[in-house]
């Protein structure tokens, strides 16, 4: 005859002198969640896994809210030189951004708005390894706008000409 006794307080079953701890019913789910969380977080340590292989952090808020139609050419910057950048976008309430970086794929230290746009706003900020210049047209505006930015270091001047079209009905 087998000696199977369960101690309700300790949660231990004695089977022929052996002690076996009972697992809580949710323990398997908790272990699975921990393993999955570890795998997800392991991906964060891989710099090649992020947007555009950035070595610096890129947050979701930096990628949200862009205009559905935004056309900006690749910009080549040279220290002490000016650069003219054409921008085309549909005014759906979103921003259109110009991404640029210094040599060695690092953002500029500062961006100065030297000429304000007449029909929109400009935000100059870091997104990962780049400095991004975002233009958001005023609500309902359609037409042309211009603004200028100076990036430091390097004394780089960027003149932006924007063509904003109304969304199609």
Summed up, the helix count is 2
Uncertain runs: 6-23, 31-51
Amino-to-carboxy terminus distance: 84 Å
The appropriate CATH architecture of the largest domain is Sandwich
Total domain modules: 2
**What overall form do the CA principal axes indicate?**
globular
Main sheet characteristics = 5 strands, mixed
Structural class: mainly beta
Helicity, as a percent range: 10-25%
What is the C-level CATH assignment of the largest domain?
Mainly Beta
Approximately how much beta-strand content do the residues carry?
Answer: 35-45%
User: Helix and strand string, N-terminal first?
Assistant: EEEHHEEEEEEEE
Mean pLDDT across the residues is 76
CATH topology of the largest domain: Immunoglobulin-like
* Secondary structure: number of strands: 11
- Compute the gyration radius: what is it? 28 Å
Going across the biggest sheet, name each strand in turn.
4-5-11-10-7
């Amino acid at each position: 005859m087998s000696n199977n006794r369960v101690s309700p307080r300790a949660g231990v079953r004695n089977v022929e002198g052996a002690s076996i701890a009972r697992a809580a019913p949710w323990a398997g789910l908790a272990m699975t969640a921990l393993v999955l969380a570890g795998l997800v977080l392991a991906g964060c340590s891989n710099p090649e896994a992020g947007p555009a292989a950035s070595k610096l952090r890129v947050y979701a808020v930096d990628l949200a809210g862009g205009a559905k139609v935004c056309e900006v050419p690749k910009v080549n910057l040279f220290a002490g030189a000016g650069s003219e950048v054409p921008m085309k976008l549909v005014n759906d309430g979103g921003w259109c951004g110009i991404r640029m970086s210094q040599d060695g794929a690092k953002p500029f230290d500062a961006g100065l708005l030297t000429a304000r746009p007449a029909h929109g706003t400009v935000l100059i900020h870091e997104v990962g390894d780049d400095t991004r210049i975002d233009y958001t047209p005023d609500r309902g505006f359609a037409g042309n706008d211009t603004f200028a930015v100076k990036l430091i270091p390097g004394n780089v001047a960027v003149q932006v000409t924007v063509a904003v079209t109304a969304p199609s009905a």
